[in-house]
From TrEMBL, chain A:
Organism: Neomesorhizobium albiziae
GO molecular function: phospholipid transporter activity
Coiled coil stretches, renumbered: none
Domain called STAS: residue spans: 19-98
Cellular component terms per the entry's GO annotation: ATP-binding cassette (ABC) transporter complex
Protein name, per record: Phospholipid/cholesterol/gamma-HCH transport system permease protein
SUPFAM superfamilies the UniProt entry points to: SpoIIaa-like
Disordered as annotated region, ranges: 1-21
Keyword Transmembrane helix attached: yes
InterPro entries linked to this entry: Permease_MalE (IPR030802), STAS_dom (IPR002645), STAS_dom_sf (IPR036513)
Compositionally biased spans, kind Polar residues: 9-20
Automatic annotation (TrEMBL), chain B:
UniProt name for this protein: Phospholipid/cholesterol/gamma-HCH transport system ATP-binding protein
Domain of life per record: Bacteria
Keywords for this protein: ATP-binding, Nucleotide-binding, Transport
UniProt similarity note: Belongs to the ABC transporter superfamily.
SMART domains: AAA
Alphabetical list of Pfam families matching this protein: ABC_tran (PF00005)
The keyword Cytoplasm belongs to this UniProt entry's keyword annotation: no
Lineage: Bacteria, Pseudomonadati, Pseudomonadota, Alphaproteobacteria, Hyphomicrobiales
Record-linked SUPFAM superfamilies: P-loop containing nucleoside triphosphate hydrolases
């Protein structure tokens, strides 16, 4: 025990300051004498003794001699007052003697602040089954509310950034372009690098396995179809969800926290139109463009690995690719991009609008924005795969 | 770390006389870059008094407060709290000092992620070794002492009105029953009745616990009703200090217009009628 020595030292401070409770049985009740310093820093030494007095059932009269108390502050006064109140509640006659002027004022102040008020009822704790059901129910309702809020934002966006008094649709082109620059152009380096590496890895792994069958050239089919239909758009969407979805939530959330969103409403602007619309439009434009760039980077990475690792020259790779994929493969991937952009933007905005007053709530909603958008993006990708399979696309 | 809670358990030393100086600032100079905000300012605060500190907006009241609390660096001078030079204090002394002061920031500065009760318990948790139940009771007591309803204890700061935030912040400042509290515009944002209650509360705490109060305020009512002494900040130092009478007698132009201006006269008139 590291702290043994100081602990020992602190438990035995100079005896005259140590708070104490002395109980003496009298012929007609209990004579209790308090002494020492009853201050915030020391009351925990006597809390237990006082509580024991509050629970004693065998007394009808109690005399509290507090003349021995040298210093008292609100914490000490609370202990005394708590005992007096407990005595009053169970019909024990209490007399307080020997209070100094300061202690009297303090006791009076504490009594005034607390008397006549019931202790707050402890929240009833339900059993684990009820709590499970409660969590489930809350989850379902929260999901429904999220969906409705998302539809509201989508609807408001499609309806356009309305202005009041019929000034028509004032689409702020500058805001949209600025957002495309931040969310699209700014993301190009990281998306290109990530896609090139993933394309190279898929090509290397594919070539390694196909080598056993002497079918190394089919790595081109593998990479081409996998990247163009699935990986390019999915990885880009995940990257954008982490990069821009979180930014949208944090921006809108901190504006919500500081009542800027309310200020927009009062000025007569639609917050969805001003804040969400440009970001959503920018994402819907930027994500397909980024997907195209990602596709090129992934195929580029695959070409490089095929050449260096499997000895397939780039000309042969491109020749083979022209045979294995057609324009529908490319579109099968690209069509998904705007949907994913909408999902990221809407979830980011909904979470941003849900931010409450505290810093903690902001962090919570940014996290849940990223988690939810990545999750929904992957689900939607799966739904598209099933849909394509069903229509033989 | 483990031993720390126990090493500072002893009570603050008792006052050793009527006019013990609790806080003394000597020749304090504070400058931001080339701009000198406070120039050789000296100020004493005595135990058990309520000092009202006034000054024009931007005169450096908050800078002085922050300097005393060690949140701003000073260029020169010395600040002694309870006779201990805060610059030369070792870590343990510094902690003892921190335990003996409470601060009410102008905008409350409550921790937004904690409820009011948890906010009040932050200093208790940090410095004291109290059982959970007693800590809850004491936190509730502090909350009620500052005039908040019981159900406010479980609310978060974002759910409180401006006046309630002030009170909750005072409850936190009083959590350890400090010897001196610094109040930065405590009654701004309170309705007049609430402000009067607040003043009364401060006076009551002073009477019972020998609390010393350093109050930055613009509330003439507070200055007239509870402050024992008033100090006026101007020209980068303390222009005048003294009782309300001294203020009314002062010929300094700013002091004159502040205490004998239109608003002060109206208050005076209203009081007489």
């Amino acid at each position: 025990m590291l702290n043994d020595a100081p602990l020992q030292a602190s438990r035995t401070p100079d005896a005259q300051n140590q708070p104490e409770v002395n109980v003496r049985e009298d012929k007609d009740g209990l004579a209790v004498a308090f002494s020492g310093n009853w201050t915030t820093r020391r009351v925990h030494f006597v809390d237990h003794d006082v509580r024991a007095l509050e629970l004693r059932g065998d007394v009808r009269k109690m005399t509290l001699d507090i003349s021995g108390i040298q210093r008292i502050d609100t914490a000490g006064a609370w202990l005394v007052e708590r005992l007096i109140a407990a005595n009053a509640a169970r019909g024990v006659e209490t007399t307080v003697v020997g209070e100094s002027e300061a202690a009297g004022i303090l006791l009076h102040a504490v009594a005034e602040a607390t008397r006549g008020k019931e202790a707050p009822a402890a929240p009833a704790s339900d059993n684990i089954f009820i709590r499970f059901l409660e969590t489930l129910g809350r989850g379902v309702y929260a999901g429904r509310d999220d969906f409705i809020a998302g539809m509201y934002i989508l609807g408001s966006t499609i309806r356009g950034a309305q202005m009041k008094l019929g000034r028509g649709n004032a689409v702020n082109l500058a805001a949209i372009v600025a957002q495309i620059d931040r969310m699209g152009v700014g993301a190009i380096p990281v998306v290109l690098l990530m896609s090139a590496i993933v394309g190279a890895i898929v090509a290397q792994q594919g070539a390694f396995q196909l080598r056993y069958f002497g079918a190394e050239i089919f790595v081109v089919d593998l990479v081409g179809i996998l990247v163009l239909r699935e990986l390019g758009v999915l990885l880009t969407a995940i990257m954008i969800a982490g990069r821009s979805g979180s930014a949208i939530t944090a921006e809108i959330g901190s504006m919500k926290m500081r009542e800027e969103v309310d200020a927009l409403t009062v000025i007569g602007l639609n917050p969805v139109g001003v804040l969400v619309f440009p970001r959503l439009v920018a994402l819907v434009i930027a994500l397909p463009c980024l997907t195209i760039a990602a596709n090129f980077a992934a195929i580029g990475g695959a070409i490089a690995v095929s050449w260096l690792y499997s000895g397939i020259p780039p000309e042969a790779f491109i020749d083979r690719m022209r045979a294995s994929i057609d324009v529908s493969t490319i579109f099968a991937g690209l069509i998904k991009a705007p949907f994913m952009a909408l999902i990221i933007g809407i979830i980011g905005s909904v979470e941003g609008m849900k931010v409450g007053g505290s810093a903690e709530s902001l962090g919570l909603h940014v996290t849940s924005s990223v988690v939810k958008s990545i999750f929904v993006v992957i689900i939607v990708d799966g739904l598209f795969a099933m849909f394509y399979a069903a229509i033989d696309f | 770390m483990l031993g720390r809670k126990n090493t500072i358990i002893e009570d603050a030393p008792r006052s050793n006389g009527e006019h013990e100086v609790v806080l003394s600032a000597r020749d304090v100079t504070v400058a931001f870059g080339d701009k000198v905000v406070l120039d050789k300012l000296s100020l004493d605060i005595y135990r058990g008094e309520i000092l009202g500190f006034v000054g024009a907006s931007g005169a450096g009241k908050s800078v002085l407060l922050r300097t005393i609390l060690g949140l701003n660096k000073k260029k020169a001078g010395a600040i002694k709290l309870f006779g201990i030079d805060v610059d030369k204090a070792n870590e343990l002394d510094r902690q003892r000092l921190d335990m003996r002061l409470g601060v009410l920031f102008q905008h409350g500065a409550l921790f937004s992620a904690l409820t009011v009760q948890e906010n009040v318990q932050v200093p208790m948790r940090e410095y004291l070794d109290l059982p959970k139940k007693l800590m809850d009771e004491l936190a509730l007591l502090k909350i009620e002492l500052v005039g908040l309803p019981r159900d406010a204890a479980v609310k978060f700061p974002s759910e409180l009105s401006g006046g309630m935030i002030k009170r909750a912040a005072l409850a936190r400042a009083l959590a350890l029953d400090p010897d001196i509290v610094f109040l930065d515009e405590p009654t701004s944002g309170l309705d007049p009745i609430g402000a009067a209650d607040f003043d009364e509360l401060v006076a009551k705490l002073r009477d019972t616990m020998g609390l010393t109060v350093y109050m930055v305020t613009h509330d003439l009512d507070s200055l007239f009703s509870v402050c024992d002494r008033i100090a006026v900040l101007g020209n980068k130092k303390v222009l005048v200090e003294g009782t309300v009478k001294d203020m009314l007698a002062s010929e300094e132009p700013w002091v004159k217009s502040y205490f004998r201006g239109k608003r002060a006269r109206q208050l005076d008139l209203a009081a007489r009628n």
